[in-house]
Structures are given as C-alpha cells and as structure tokens.
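hey so i finally got around to running the thing on that chain from the lab meeting. sorry it took forever, my laptop kept dying and i had to restart like 3 times. anyway pasting the input first so we r on the same page abt which one it is
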Amino acid sequence: MAAPARVFLLSPARLDGKRGAMLFREGASFPLAAQLRTIEGCPIGEVFRFVSGLYFRGKLAYANAFARAPSGASWMGNGALVITQNRGLVPVTTRVCLEHLEAFSSTNIHPDEPAFRKPLVRDAKLVSENLAAADEVVLLGSIASAKYVDALLEVFGNRLLFPGEFVGRGDMSRGGLMLRAVDAKKELSYVPVAGAIRKGTRPPKLTPRKRHREAPIHKAEPESS
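ok and heres what got predicted. didnt touch it at all, straight out
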C-alpha cells in the first residue's frame, strides 16, 4: 500500500538583502546572475537558496528528501512547492529569470495584498483538490506571522501542519535542524498549525553538525550550518 502523499510548502526568501542586491546589480556576471539573464533562467529553489543561505538551504534539502507528491498531480513536481510573492505556489524546480525576481521584489507579502494572496489561495485550493483523505500538507516556514499562514489555514484548515520543533527557533536554527534531519534520514514531528503555540521558549542550541559537501551555486555562498 502506497504511503500517503506529503506536500511541503516552503516560505519565500527575501530579495531585499545583500545577496538579492548581488543578483540585481547591473553587470553581475557570476554564474547564477548570468544564468538569470538568459531565457532558460534558474530553478527558483536554487535562487532562493542563494539569497537566503542556511535557512532556505535547509528547507530545500528537507523538502526534496521527504516530499511525496499526490499521484496524478504532475504539476506539483516532487511535492515540494515554494510560496512566491505573486505567482502562488510553484515547484522548487520552476525556472525563473531576472524579470520574475524583479516582479517578486515589487510585491508586498501581506495578507491584505491581493497580488500576493489571490494566487496563493488559488493554488492552495488546487493542491487541496488533489489530496486524498490521509495526505498531508506541511508548512516549512514561520507561523508567528499571519502573512501567509491565514490564507493557507483558510484553505487547508486542520490539515495544515508544521514541524513542532520549529517553535522558539530562529531562521538559522531551523535551517540547521532540517539539515540534521536530512543527514539522519528522519523526519521531524508535525503538528497542526491551527491552535498551535506560535511563539515559544527558545530551545537549546543545536549540537555541531558534521561537514557535508554540497554543490555551491556561487563561491560566496556560506557553508556554515
């Protein structure tokens, strides 16, 4: 008997930081920036991994390791979907160009922003329609803010889960936690977002992680975890 599907929703990376500026800088010629300026573009997962560093690197590795897409839903790819600023939910392998990133950066991620909320709700409903009763949807992102949580709860209700171990941790700690889970080939524990404690006591620091070589997409990408 096939295991139930498990779809992961990865919160978006911010594009207004130092690494986002590197991509937008006129004349940028390092490999990722150059590829974004071609028709083919780059997978959105790799772009967000670059601008976010450890946090998105952890989310991407974790989702790719444990996602199971529903049968007959090829548009979901492997079941790892990124929440975007104005295109709703897209597979982590969806290719984007610089023009897409410029449109992302001009859209406010806010529950009252139609350009953000409408595509997100539209695609969340499409995901929901493709799920069987036992299938799960797991948010890999913060539940402390309503910016995308409320829209997702509106569609998924009690079916929307998140790793309980996230509570009280900052972004870097969550990223490291997910990478360690991938190393151990053991998933975190999932609890419903509805009714969950959104802000908790900070847990102890993670123990040092053994070095694992990962293919960098740019030589400046941080390797610490």
